[in-house]
Amino acid sequence: MMEFVNLRFHLNIFFDTSILMKLNRGLKNELKNSYLLIGFLFDFFIFRPMKIVEMHPENLPALVTEKAAENQSFRNFIHALPSKQIDFTLDVIIPEVEKNIDCTQCGNCCRHLQPGLSAEEISILASKKSMSNEDFKNQFTAQEKGTMIQYMTARPCVFLDHNICSIYESRPHSCKDFPYLDEARIKLYWKRVMEFYKICPIVFNTVELLKKEVGFNSSSA
Ligand code: SF4
Ligand code: SF4
Prior knowledge:
The protein is mainly alpha-helical. Helices cover 56% and strands 5% of the residues. The protein has a three-stranded antiparallel beta sheet with strand order 1-3-2. A hairpin with a 2-residue loop joins strand 4 (160-161) and strand 5 (164-165). Residues 110, 115, 157, 159-160, 165, 167, 171, 175 line the site of one iron/sulfur cluster.
């Protein structure tokens, strides 16, 4: 496995030092990023099938504790990597992880998070409970301190039914977008990523695969 990681880095170094040095800075960066992506895709799909760690969310707390020191070290490691390299790598990893994890067997985000709601979403959710907006707000939401943001307070969420969202098609945007891994320059949001790593098997597996793909050596952590 390690050889393939090294091969990718060699490819990147080759392109960086030979062809790209002849080009102007803007074009150089674009091409460099393309070669980084091509090298990564070649490595990822041709040489190394992805290994998802199958797990129940209840196993996460113990694994997270076990990996606390390693994760601190990884945080420093990715801090030194180019944002685009991390984003490109995640663009390939995330769909594969999502394909292999069945959210209907989990529902853990709906047990832990308190989704933010727009006024329109409050209205939709209130109608699902056959309540007025005001009653729904009073019973199920609160306002974030110092802001106008409303969020659902109940944990687990009142719409969760045996790991499944009972209003799936009408769920709020903050539920649809979870776990928010497709942000550009994701390393700027690393603290949040690692918060969700503690509760979400998709995030956990994504971060663990990212460690491998960027050549992080966990034994030196
Ligand atoms: S509205 Fe649905 S998706 Fe959102 S937290 Fe509640 S159960 Fe989960
Ligand atoms: S998004 Fe993550 S925490 Fe939520 S149901 Fe899917 S795997 Fe579980």
